Amino acid sequence: MPNQDELTFLVNANDVKPDCGTRVDLPDHPPLAVFRLGDEIFVTDDTCTHGAASLSEGDICDGQVECPFHSGAFDIRTGEATALPCIKPLRVYPITIENGRVYARLDADGSDAGQAACAQIPSAAR
Predict the structure, then answer these.
(1) Is residue 70 a contact partner of residue 50, using CB atoms and an 8 Å limit?
(2) I need a surface site. Which of 10, 42, 89, 102 has the fewest CB within 10 A?
(3) Are strands 29-37 and 20-26 parallel, antiparallel or unpaired?
(4) How far apart are CA 12 and CA 103, in angstroms?
C-alpha cells in the first residue's frame, strides 16, 4: 500500500451511491469519476477518451459506464473500452478506503490502465 503522502482524498464513500458515478474536481488534475459497484469503489478519469464527456453522468449497467455523448462504453473495473466509438481505455487509479474516506494514488505512472483498481467499502462505512 502506498504511504499516506502518495494518497489524495477524493470523497466520502457514503457519498457515492450504488451503481452511480460521482465527479471529483481537484486542483492541478483532470476530473475523476468515482464509481460504486455493489460494495466496491473504483476511480477512473472522468473524461471519455473519445470526446469531452463526463462519464460520471453516464448510465451504468453490468459494471460498464456508457458515455452520455456517443454511447461508447467502458468497463469500470478495468478501464477497457467495450463499445464503439470508444477504443482507448480509461486510466484507472489505485485506491484505498480508510475511515469511510476514499483516497487515490494519482501519481501512478499510468501503467495500471486496463487493470483492476478497487477497494471494498468497510461494513461500518456502508
Answers:
(1) yes
(2) 89
(3) antiparallel
(4) 9
Tens digits of per-residue pLDDT, 6-21? 899 999 999 999 999 9
Query: What's the CATH number where 90 sits?
Result: 2.102.10.10
> Whose CA is closest to 47, among 27, 28, 65, 20?
65
Three-state SS for 84-119 is CCCCCCCCECCEEEECCEEEECCCCCCCCCCCCCEE
- Give yes or no for residue 28 having a pLDDT over 50: yes
Q: How many domains does the chain have?
A: 1
C-alpha span between 105 and 119 (Å, rounded): 12
User: Do residues 7 and 103 make contact, with C-beta atoms less than 8 angstroms apart?
Assistant: yes
8 Å CB contact between 95 and 114: no
pLDDT tens track for 58-111: 999 999 999 999 999 999 999 999 999 999 999 999 999 999 999 999 986 554
Dihedral sign of CA atoms 47, 52, 54, 58 in order: negative
Lowest mean pLDDT among 34-38, 52-56, 107-111, 112-116: 112-116
